Amino acid sequence: MNLIQRILAAVAAVASLVLAAPAQAAGIQQAFLVQNSGWMEPFYTDQHSQLKALVGAVAQAASTPEDQLFLLAFSQSSGSNVSPALLGQGRGAASIAAQLAPLGLARKGSGGALADTDFQEAVTKTITGPFRSASGIVWIFTNNKNSPNNDSQTAERNRDFYRLLHLEPSITKTLVFPLRMPVQGKLYSAKGLMVYALAYGQPAADALSRIQADGRLSRVLTRAPARLKPVDQDAVRIVPQSVRNTPNVHASLGRDGRTIVLDVEAASLVPQVVLQASLQNMFFPYVIEGATVHAALAGQAAPLQVSPAVIKGLQPGASQAVEVRFDLPMAQIPSPWSAQALAAMGKQVLLPMTATVGLSEQRLALSSGFAGQLQELFPGDPISEVFTPPDSVRASQATVPLLVRIQYPLLPVLLMIAAILLLLLAFVVFGLLGTRSKRYRVVVDGVPRQVLLKPFKSVLLRDDGGREIGELKRGLGKPSVVRVADGHAVTVG
Q1: pLDDT, tens digit (0-9, with 9 covering 90-100), for 303-362
Q2: Per-residue pLDDT averaged across 461-471, rounded?
């Protein structure tokens, strides 16, 4: 049974753990496989070799104290030599250097010949052994020579490793770091070292992405990694430059390096944005020899238009000038008098959106500059063919977050506050007036009198004998006579 079949069997047995289980809060398990076969002789005998220091530094940068780490040496099992050999395990990377210090070259058995190398054995036994077929990241430190038994099987084993890196679905992400590390041994010499990072299962892929984003790893492995998988995601990035159809909208790139941010005053909103931008190839180390661009804005009937819609000969990291047109969802943008805008107190209201940019009829090729670098570091090395992109990958897609930041004026807020204050003032004045009595002059049957009357109150007028003569009633202003008994006269004033 070859590597692919064995891994598929493991996946079938524990599919719920590998492909469906969420990342655990306790961290991700990681294995650091260090090659110690005969071809690695100069890395162990040259006193200036930085192999062990590099492994320790990568483990320290890539892990947290909560991660379960396994340190293994690998060559090829033969006779009494077992590969991979577990050197140590535990939480965090504090003990990696001590565990790695005594490691030397492996030998086939009692004969004393240096051991050969078997990549498929090392990866398979790590996944089914220490990992117990659960998700994890496998790091491989190698001189890139896969040489099982030093026989004709080497080419076929290389093809197995290619299929694993590119086509095996349980390997969800693969990064490769070619490093310059010249060493001279008694038997061999070498110019470079290769570091592979293989994510087994989706939780491991997510963890590997977090490790990249954290930035600590890039301080150890200073050159950008080659991305072998996936090559159908995050193919391109749109870098905004300016908005052509209005001077009142400012375009920029968010701190995450992906989000397109549009800053606009609420009074300057335009239904359609015409964005001058650059389309950048994120497919390192691949050249996009040709592809057709199509895009869409989530939830919008009108398409997001990118022109020109054809890419030709775009080198990794290079950019092509494009014009992007899309409609703003005006119905979703709050009015300056809406509760959302007023609650912002004259600040920004955020309108997040998502665009998808896809490439179809995609043709990829390895960058000639990167191929030359591989040839220099690993001369005549056939396993470098793993960098050839699969013919089956003809389309890819990138998600582009879009954030519209609308600056709302403070005037509606001030007017609303003023109206509320006036209303409160009116209530206060009304309250004061409602409790204050006022003296009025009243003439009853030709005789003047003085009466005290509060707003919205009434008073009865009586003669000396206590008989009712009439009634006065007051609103906010002067009282009025509402009733007079027969034979009497009542006037106010």
Answers
A1: 789 999 999 999 999 999 999 998 887 766 666 666 766 666 666 778 888 999 999 999
A2: 85
Judging by DSSP bridges, how do beta strands 136-142 and 29-35 pair with one another?
Answer: parallel
**Single-letter residue type at 110:** S
Q: What does the H/E/C string look like for the chain?
A: CCHHHHHHHHHHHCHHHHHHCCCCCCCCEEEEEEECCHHHHHHHHCCCCCHHHHHHHHHHHHCCCCCEEEEEEECCCECCECCCEEEEEEECCCCHHHHHCCCCCCECCCCCCECCCCHHHHHHHHHHCCCCCCCEEEEEEECCCCCHHHCCHHHHHHHHHHHHHHCCCCEEEEEEEEEEEEEECCCCEEEEEEEEEEEECHHHHHHHHHHHHHCCHHHCCCCCCEEEECCCECCEEEEEEEECCCCCEEEEECCCCCCEEEEEEHHHCCCEEEEEEEEEECCCCEEEEEEEEEEEECCCCCCEEEECCEEEEECCCCEEEEEEEEECCHHHCCCCCCHHHHHCCCCEEEEEEEEEEEEEEEEEEECHHHHHHHHHHCCCCHHHHHHCCCCCCCCEEEEEEEEEEEECCCHHHHHHHHHHHHHHHHHHHHHHHHHCCEEEEEEECCEEEEEEECCCCEEEEECCCCCEEEEEECCCCCCEEEEECCCCCEEEC
- Residue 400 CA to residue 386 CA, distance in Å, equals 29
Strand 468-473 to 458-462 pairing: antiparallel
Q: What is the pLDDT of residue 19?
A: 40
Q: Is 219 buried (19+), middle (13-18) or exposed (0-12) by CB count in 10 A?
A: exposed
Query: How many C-beta atoms lie closer than 10 Å to residue 151's C-beta?
Result: 9
Chain centroid, CA 306 distance in Å: 23
Question: Whose CA is closest to 141, among 42, 218, 35, 31?
Answer: 35
Average pLDDT over residues 475-482: 83
pTM of the complete model beyond 0.85: no
